[in-house]
Every structure is written in structure tokens, then in C-alpha cells.
Amino acid sequence: MSAQPVHHHTSEGGERVPRTADGIAAALSPARRMEFYRELGTAQLDQAEAVLRRWWCEAMLDADPEGDRLTAAALDGTLPLASVSSVLARRQARGLPVD
Predict the structure, then answer these.
(1) Domains held by the chain: number
(2) Based on the domain organization, do 45 and 30 belong to the same domain?
(3) 23 and 58 share one domain
(4) Is the pLDDT of residue 83 over 70?
(5) Where is the composition biased (Basic and acidic residues) (predicted)?
(6) What whole-number distance in Å separates Cα of residue 98 and Cα of residue 53?
(7) I need a labelling partner for 6 at 20 to 30 A (CA). Which of 13, 31, 83, 97 fits?
(8) What is the tens place of the pLDDT at every residue in 11-52?
């Protein structure tokens, strides 16, 4: 199993998309924002965190200036891949969450 490399583009030391419902919503298009709020609003309490995590990933891609290029490369099968273990090791080395 492999995953694409994670590149965090931050400003002033923070993440491009804050890990909050409002931060996620702000990074999404209006239509996707409504979908996000609808999914979050109907999620069971024990599933709310999973909904936030999934949509944060979506918002990070939406807010990435290279997002369209990354999506096209993924669909074309030309996106460089990295092993999950190497991504986790890199995240741990940076003090980022790995769960």
C-alpha cells in the first residue's frame, strides 16, 4: 500500500487549512461546503471526528495551488508515490499526528 507524499504549505507557522469545522468550510467551494455541513450535521457523535478528518483532507487539496495538477496526475497514474511507512516516519519526525 502506498500514498502520495504530503506537502504542507503553511503561512505564519500554521496549516493551510485549520483543523476546525470553520477552517475546513472556509477552504471549500460553496456547494462542497454545504455537503460538508450536511455530512457533519448528520454524523453520529462517534463518527464526527472521522467526518472532520476526511473533509480536512478534501479542503487541503482544494486549497492547494497545485491541487488541479495533483488530481490530474493521480487520474493519469503519474503521481509519485511514497510508502505509508515512509510518510508516517516523516510525520513523526516533524511532530505531526500519525493516527
Answers:
(1) 2
(2) yes
(3) yes
(4) yes
(5) 9-19
(6) 12
(7) 31
(8) 445 688 999 999 999 999 999 999 999 999 999 999 999 999
